Fold:
Amino acid sequence: MQVQLIIRMLDSKVIIVGGGPAGATCAWKLKQSNVPVIVLDKKPFPRPKTCAGWITPEVLKDLHIRTDEYPYPMVVFRRLNVHLSGCRIPVRTRQYSIRRIEFDDWLIKRSGVDVYEHNVRQINKEGRHYVIDGRYRCEFLVGAGGTNCCVYRTFFKPDNPRSESNKIIALEEEFAYDYRNDNCHLWFFDNMLPGYAWYVPKGKGYLNVGIGAKHLKMKARGQTIFEHWDRLVQKLDNLGLVHHRRFHPKGCSYYLSDRREMVSKDQAFIIGDAAGLATIDMGEGIGAAVQSGILAANAIVTGQVYATRSITRYSFKNILLNCFR
Structure:
């Protein structure tokens, strides 16, 4: 006797692939407009996410978050210590740091949408609908799955591949540490690094350190990200910021903002790192993720064109605007 397994197709007007800040923001805005939406993510929440976790006052404003209502520690930086060629330049500002394992989980739960654990492998366009792995179907598809998002690879990459000149590779680690220095430090262009390194204290005694740089420029100079990582570890020890730790950094890659990027096609959208929106000067992506999620949701609700031209491409502009707030 043969037993046939019948899997019922789950339909929703909108399906968002990826539940990070971009996907959670888009879902939250769609839910506010009573648009049927579900989120697919390959890992259950809360899930670890290595990230500097730097967020701006604009992110809090866009998400309607009051610092007193956020249930997890949020470290406030009134000053950034910017290091250029050995010179420390204190920059007055107001910025924040969070842990992504907490922030992402809180955002997706606050959205109020159903989240399904599913690793998307294949997406087909069938008439007016998108069908995901024969199990999910929607009219509008939003790719929020990061740099390697399946929505980007399937529908956007063939016609509009990204420029490798905008590719950033990074190494970073987040860990519990009894840090004594609770300031944020940023080092630019050390040892001809085409990028910068960071030291970001977080709540509950956590610390994030990392380094990011343009891949092609490092390659042209005969450098590797691992060489620069070793120099950063030595610097942290010399400055007394992190002593005698055996690091186990994780690598990732993402793309800086490129105005030529195509971000919508046939009722499919890409947002956040799936759209390559990190700022040009510092590779900061959470702000752009949130803004693009809002813009995509508004486009779905109103039928207007989705575009990312209004999203800022420079982090330092934001930092300076917050000097006296």
